[in-house]
Amino acid sequence: MSGYRLATGGRIDRTRPLTFTFDGRLYRGLAGDSLASALVASGVTLFGRSFKYHRPRGLLATGVEEPNALVEIDRGPGRVTPNLKAPSLALYEGMVAQSQNRFPSLAFDLGAINNRLGVFFPAGFYNKTFMWPRSAWEKLYEPVIRRLAGLGHSPTTRDPDTYASTYAHCETLVIGGGPAGIESALAAAATGERVILIDEQEELGGGALGEPTRWAWLADATARLGAHPNVRVLPRTTAYGAYHQNFVAAAERLTDHLRPDRASGHREKLWRIRTRDLVLAQGAIERPLVFDGNDIPGVMLSSAARTLALHYGVAIGRAVAVMAVHDSGWHDALAIAAAGVRVRAIVDLRTAIDPALIEAARAAGIECLPGHAVTGVSGRSAVNAIRVAPGGTGPARHLPCDALLMAGGWTPTLHLWSHAKGAMRWDDASGTYLPIPGTDPVRCVGACAGEWDFGSGMSVAALPSLKPAHRQKAFVDFQNDVKASDIALAVQEGFRSIEHIKRYTTTGMATDQGKTSNMNGVRLAAQALGRPIADMGLTTFRPPYTPQTFGALVGVHKDALFQPLRKTAIDAWAEAEGAVFENVAQWRRARYFPHASEDMHAAVDRECRSVRQSVGLFDASTLGKIEVVGPDAAEFLDRMYTNPWKSLVPGRCRYGLLLREDGFILDDGVAARLAPDRFHVTTTTGGAARVLAMMEDYLQTEWSDLDCWLTSTTEQWAVIAVQGPRARDVIALLVEGIDLVPEAFPHMAVRDGRICGVPTRLFRVSFTGELGFEINVPADHGRAVWEAVHAAGQPHGIVPYGTEAMHVLRAEKGYIIVGQDTDGTVTPDDAGMAWAIGRKKPDFVGKRSLARPDLARDRRRQLVGLLTADPATVLEEGAQIVADPGQSIPMKMIGHVTSAYHSAALGRSIALALLEDGRARVGQSVHVPMPHGNVTALVSSPVFHDPSGARLDG
Amino acid sequence: MLLIHCPWCEDLRPETEFAYGGQAHIARPHDPSQYSDEEWERFLYIRANDRGRHHERWRHAHGCGRFFNAVRDTVTDKFETTYKAGEAAR
Fold it and tell me: Kind and range of the H or E element at A639?
């Protein structure tokens, strides 16, 4: 193939030359060129190396179906994009393009050794070859395969571009801007309704861009579209997925067609469009023919040569041959011949051909060879001749040429139709699957519906040849390097379903989703199986239609906007104090407050000691809060929680345990009865939304007779926990209207009053085992009250403490954290909290399940404490526990560590664990095998500190 | 993305406003203690896996917050109808 620029014709601007580089070499093109057309015009034949065999590959197509000519475009630091299709790239001044899948260079590629070794790489070769020895997979096979395989390189630096997204609504969405799409859009526009027309190319026109006789119509139709204020045209936009109820996702490329130094704004825009009527006008894709040597550069689709000549003014070669089984090959040959390309011969397997075509071809000086087939192609990086034989099996003849065009018939582009679950039927006349119009407001028009004016043709799985199939390099899937013989092998090895054959041979599984290969693959499989092709079915198309950037899909949802980050009213204070944060269920929480040189261990020890010895201050605002109000509030909570609530008097609190209906612990928290008909319920930080949803579910669907209301008040209250023997002294000066003496305000009581001049719901509760208060104030006042408490605590040495110290302090008391010490398989009794179950209650959520045999059986895993033999050893959370460390692997595991810390109060490590029959093992030793040796631990009560609870009263 | 009709709001709203709630019309017994282990297991765990019409619960979680039932075809994903919780199955 020695392409060159034709003297006239095409939609390129001959007055605007452009320069660009490909693999570091400087080339010239014209404004209006694609990268592919400019390279072909410069005589380039070699565009890439194939995936598996590293065979030299040229341009096959001029649309998004292109499997071979994949390039990497470098638009500056962080802006390198691999696997772009050369024919889909609008050329701009200074474009920097690189070929892919070759080392060290495109012309000399070491990986091409695979081509010689091809016999060792049949279908399923990964499964067959690399099974043994197992260790070699990791050390030898995988690194080598990774080095050689893959398409392009992933970018390694951060993407500097930004991406927009939007929603749109319309009455008619047309996908595909060829003549059929434009006519549909114009018809819909005439109604005055909203119309959107999406097209993936640089300009509207589709197939008409390759037909100069239609350019006047195209200009007029485009202008008429533009005159409709109710029509939005989106060029350079790929509708990549059709979803339920006419919802379409599309990506608009905003800057990639511009010189990098002139590009500004978002790189792409994601469109999510809901339309009443969806019109698919995606056209059709020409099928290659399957024969020995059909992948040698210079063998390409006939329609691509037409597009190059008539759209871009580029001749594909100086002596072109055509191998057709369809009239469209003849039409293309005549059209490019008229444009000045020398066509030597048209070979057609059919014997009966429209005499008018033969006459026209002869008149154009083209040799006609009906009833013949191409049986071989010579040339390595470019075609230099073909062999042609009558019927493919007669005496072969040598025919010099520098390009061979394939016209194998047409396949409608039904990808989005398939996404939209449209039905298809096999059509013998066109040799392909066609859409069956359904009742949904989705329809195919134009070539997409099989309505084309390319004439007719025959269907053929592979061209006939005397050469045995396994000796032929006859490719079906160019991008994944699947040959006709691979499909025959898959069938021989027992694969029957086209879905299995696809996966075993990888036909149609490359980035092009088999746009040029699927139909040939199905046809070959049907032939090998001896079954009618209509019975084979098609494999399923799934979005995206073409590869899309992660940037467009992600849009602004990255970094700080990846997910919401909730901050408490006190967060900014903690930040100013140098707190180290951790994220808990989308909340940012202060983990610890290090002093100058402290590490976490030192800071947490200091914070814990302060709480135990004096007083500490903790931001508990993230606790979930639900206000349950109404005459039946107590009855409702009685049914939801394990505990009894009707007996709770106003002004008192109770620890509540919430189960799922299957009897396992879901959440816990303290609830206060503020009035006979009003409860302030708290949940875990992470469980707030889940608990409210569950409560709403029961209230609305099971107990709609109950008269009460649920309101989330999590963010209405800032919660300041003041904990430690000096807690009362600290808040005494700030609180008004509440008698704080223990007799008037005992543990687990709640009072309304004022603090620092603002209203408060003051709880006397403790999650540390010390005397403690939780000051609830309206969130707006949280920061001021926190600072006032902090100031008032200075004489007592008050310190702020974070979630890490909170965890240690509660673990010293054996208080569980739901989700850490429980895992969805823990009952109240397992957690040592059978006391929380209201025995007299006839029913509550989960009660019946607690009597199920497995939940009531002996020897369940129970919460215990663990004390390591070496007090300095802190166990790893999640570590497995065994009874006998000497047993052979796999050992019988009898439990696992759920929490483990260094305890400043005890001067040693502590741990909580779920252990089989744990309470019966207290006093015994168990073992925790770790990579660096066995850890022995003594089973203890989970309450390590102040078991009598004396310290709760200060 | 599905469009779902909320029978409380009487409006067609995007799927992202809704939360799925599993199979519909499985009422919690008034007195679970009367259920045998087998009956309770059926209530807790055994669900239909219909090909075709499926009665299921949805909640307009980010809208009115109310629960309702729907009949959806599990093959086509099309909603046949939606109706308020408490109404008879359709």
Answer: helix A633-640
Contacts of B89 in chain A (CB under 8 A): none
Please, what is the angle between helix A498-505 and helix A518-529, to 10°?
Answer: 110
The DSSP-derived string for chain B is --EEEETTTTEEEEGGG-EEEEES--PPPS-GGGS-HHHHHHHHH-----SSEEEEEEE-TTTT--EEEEEEETTT--EEEEEETTSPP-
State the pLDDT at residue A1.
45
Put simply, whether B71 touches A (Cβ < 8 Å) is no
Residue A521 — φ and ψ, nearest 5°? -65, -45
Rounded CA-CA distance A822/A371 in Å is 77
Give the least confident one: A128-137, A540-549, A732-741. Answer: A128-137
Contact A721, A620 (CB under 8 A): yes
Q: Which of the residues A692, A700, A706 would you substitute to probe the B interface, choosing the one with the greatest number of B C-beta atoms within 10 Å?
A: A700
Cα–Cα nearest to A822, from A664, A642, A636, A599: A664
Is A244's CB within 8 Å of B31's CB?
Answer: no
Q: Which residues of A touch B85 (CB under 8 A)?
A: 700-701, 704
With an 8 Å Cβ cutoff, are B76 and A421 in contact?
Answer: yes
The answer to whether the CB of A247 falls within 8 A of the CB of A273 is yes
Q: How confident is the model at residue A430 (pLDDT cuts 50, 70, 90)?
A: confident
The answer for residues whose C-beta is within 8 angstroms of residue A538's C-beta and 6 or more apart is A418, A424, A433, A498, A518, A522
B88 touches chain A (CB under 8 A): no
Would you state the pLDDT for residue A701? 95
A169/A79 Cα distance (integer angstroms): 32
**Cα–Cα distances in angstroms (integers) from residue A156 to residues A78, A149, A556, A792, A921, in the given order:** 8, 18, 20, 53, 54
Across the interface, do B32 and A847 touch by the CB < 8 Å criterion? yes
Provide the phi-psi class of A350: left if phi over 0, else alpha when psi is between -120 and 50, else beta.
beta
How do residues A62-93 score in pLDDT, each as one tens digit?
999 999 999 999 999 999 999 999 999 999 99
* Phi, then psi, of A504 in degrees rounded to 5: -70, -40
Q: Where are the alpha helices (DSSP H) in A701-746?
A: 727-732
* 3 state DSSP class of A285: strand
- Chain A residues within 8 Å of chain B (Cβ atoms): 243-245, 247, 272, 274, 421, 661-662, 693, 696-697, 700-702, 704, 842-843, 847-849, 851-853
Token pair in block for residue B53: 């019409």
Is the pLDDT at B41 greater than 50? The verdict is yes
B26 touches chain A (CB under 8 A): no
What is the identity of the amino acid at A71?
Answer: V
Which residues in chain A are closer than 8 Å to B41, comparing Cβ atoms? 852
Which whole-number Å values give the CA distances from A399 to A72, A247, A320, A383, A688, in the listed order? 36, 52, 10, 11, 78
Helix (H, G, I), strand (E, B), or coil: what is residue A883?
coil
Question: How far is A312 from A394, CA to CA, in rounded Å?
Answer: 39
Residue A214: strand, helix, or coil: helix
Instruction: Please state the pTM of the whole predicted model.
Output: 0.89
